Amino acid sequence: MENRSLRLAIQKSGRLSEKSLELLKAAGVRIDNYSRQLLVKAQNFDLEILFIRDDDIPEYVQDGVADIGIVGENIILEAEKNLDLVEKLGFGKCRLSLAVPKQFKYESLKDLEGKNIATTYPVILNKYLSENNVKASIHKISGSVEITPNINLADAIFDIVSTGSTLISNGLKEVQQALKSEAVLVANKNITSEKKALLEKILFRVRSVNLAKNNKYILLNAPNDSLDKISDLLPGIKSPTIMPLAMEGWSSIHTVIKEDDFWENIENLKNAGAQGILVVPIEKMIV
Ligand code: ATP
Ligand code: MG
Predict the structure, then answer these.
(1) Residue whose CA is closest, atom 8 of ligand 1?
(2) Whole-number pLDDT of residue 262
(3) How many angstroms is it from 119 CA to the middle of ligand 2?
(4) What's the confidence (pLDDT) of residue 264?
(5) How many whole angstroms from 10 Cα to the centroid of ligand 2?
(6) Is the four-CA dihedral 33, 36, 38, 44 of positive or negative sign?
(7) 72 lines ligand 1 (CB under 6 A)
(8) What pairing do the DSSP bridges indicate for beta strands 116-119 and 137-140?
(9) Ligand 1 mutation target, pool 13, 16, 75, 124, most atoms within 8 A of CB
(10) Contact 284, 212 (CB under 8 A)
(11) What are the residue ranges in the chain where pLDDT is below 50?
(12) What's this model's pTM, rounded to 2 decimal places?
């Protein structure tokens, strides 16, 4: 019999595991009593979670072993599978960069012409080099890329960087960023309409959670004669809510602002006469 639950593949253990589970939890999907067995059923949603190595996720989703998956864009681009990219998830951010030994006099990508470059991402690197008309010899290795220049196995490396501390501790410097990556939700191209409906339901929740994360609820007090000025600084979802305070001539303003605009807005608001500013996290946001 056709399995009707939506099956989601996530990384069994690694950098994306906790965040993937947190996202499900925030989206109201309960998975009690799991101890990372291979396959676990959600308590309150028609969803099964398949815990596997991240490298296997693109293929499993393409082949329909799982219907959807959460995995780094870097893995998706390297795997070259036929999948739908449904949503960027905002965590697991990193970049794929070229790095060389710190004494290497690097000025441009042309300096890598004819060199040996070690990587676990040969597909992405090959594409990047050919787009930039550089010919180099790519050595595919399966791990510990950062040690290869030290043992004379390569002149340069192409690898994931987030803080850069691994590079520094291996005497390397990042010279060229090729790609930015974050965790994404991918889906099989041929899921049934029942499963598609389940995916839409999950996606709606995931978007509400992520939207909430990127916004803050702000409350402040202001003298009535500065309300117009302050309202102009606060676009809100529609428009700010304004309520009179018990104190004559003063009002309280409530609205939602973007996390990114947060500090800049706070300064402008203070200059416009706002006082007692409170900024509160939002748990879910549906617009
Ligand atoms: P698996 O055992 O599942 O194959 P892995 O060792 O290949 O795990 P992790 O190191 O757990 O993978 O990284 C998973 C993903 O996290 C990466 O593919 C990448 O998208 C993302 N990521 C974010 N920051 C970093 C980082 N600093 N180093 C490595 N990966 C990172
Ligand atoms: Mg892996």
Answers:
(1) 14
(2) 75
(3) 13
(4) 79
(5) 12
(6) positive
(7) yes
(8) parallel
(9) 16
(10) yes
(11) 1
(12) 0.89
CA 251 to chain CA mean position, Å? 39
Q: Which atom of ligand 1 is nearest to the CA of 54?
A: 3
Q: DSSP labels for 166-187?
A: HHHHTTEEEEEEEEEE-EEEEE
Q: Which atom of ligand 1 is nearest to the CA of 15?
A: 11
Tens digits of residue pLDDT in 166-193: 999 999 999 999 999 999 999 999 999 9
* Distance in angstroms (rounded) separating the CA atoms of residues 265 and 252: 17
- Taking only the tens place, the pLDDT of each residue in 3-31 is 679 999 999 999 999 999 999 999 999 99
How far apart, in Å, do the first and last CA atoms of the chain sit? Answer: 39
Residue 152 falls in which region: left (phi positive, over 0), alpha (psi -120 to 50) or beta: left
Ligand 1 contacts CB of residue 174 (under 6 A): no
Q: DSSP class of residue 274?
A: -
Rounded to the nearest 10 degrees, how much is the dihedral formed by the CA atoms of 255, 258, 264, 267? 20
Question: d(Cα 262, Cα 179) in Å, to the nearest integer?
Answer: 28
Query: How long a stretch of residues is the chain?
Result: 287
- The number of the ligand 1 atom at minimal distance from the alpha carbon of 53 is 3
Nearest-atom number in ligand 1 for the CA of 13 is 3
For residue 36 the two structure tokens come to 């990372």
Q: Whose CA is nearest to atom 22 of ligand 1?
A: 92
46 lines ligand 1 (CB under 6 A): no
